[in-house]
Amino acid sequence: MANVVFDFDGTLADTFPLVIDVAYKLSPGTRRISPEAITRLRRLPLLTALRELGIPNRHMPLLILFTRKRLAERMQEVRPYEGVEAMVRSLHAAGSQLFILTSNYRENVQDFLEHYKLETFFSDVETVYYANSLTKTRALRRLLRRHGLHAAETYHVGNEALDIRAARRVGMPAVAVAWGGYDVRALKAAKPLAIVETPRQLVGLLPHSP
Questions:
Q1: To the nearest 5 percent, what fractions of the chain are helix, strand and coil?
Q2: Under 8 Å between Cβ of 183 and 44
């Protein structure tokens, strides 16, 4: 099987509802929106979604910092997307080396993995402070160098267009997941190798060992 680098938020873990709840608490003036509107916000990049709540750009750096800290207290409320646990176990059993690249805190990711007994399936967690295609490009290169991986044999799996762009800059095949709710048209425009609707489809897509 191929090596696989997963994005975390929106790909493995559904942190979006908790992020919105924390944003409400950290920014009391933020307007409350309906659950239906929150579902629509999932189609947007996270920072754009927060701006749609009325949070000014100047508040974003501190909001990101404190949101991660607040998430640390509540990570056990975060659930994996349906089928993700079975997908991780299947890929690992088939011989894939699995990694995570995230803008979340490493400790938050580890808490999540330990809670769902998935920590032994991942070889490394690489983090960036601020997620954009440039920071993720650099982080992917660091991860490849550290583990001696070949870009062409290592897949990057994410839920946002920036994940796809970062992978393509490094020469990695990129797979977009639709289960996080991101705008599929934007994913297609980023030109991934494929867009998968379910974790089971991802397992079927990745090359198996002979």
A1: 50, 15, 35
A2: yes
Domain assignments of the chain as residue spans, ordered by start:
3-14+78-205, 16-77
List of residues 6+ apart from 20 with CB closer than 8 A = 38, 41, 49, 53
CATH topology of domain 3-14+78-205: Rossmann fold (3.40.50)
pLDDT per residue as tens digits for the range 12-34:
998 877 777 777 766 666 666 67
Q: How far apart are CA 64 and CA 87, in angstroms?
A: 29
pTM score of the predicted model? 0.86
CB 140 within 8 A of CB 124: no
What's the token pair of residue 7? 């994005």
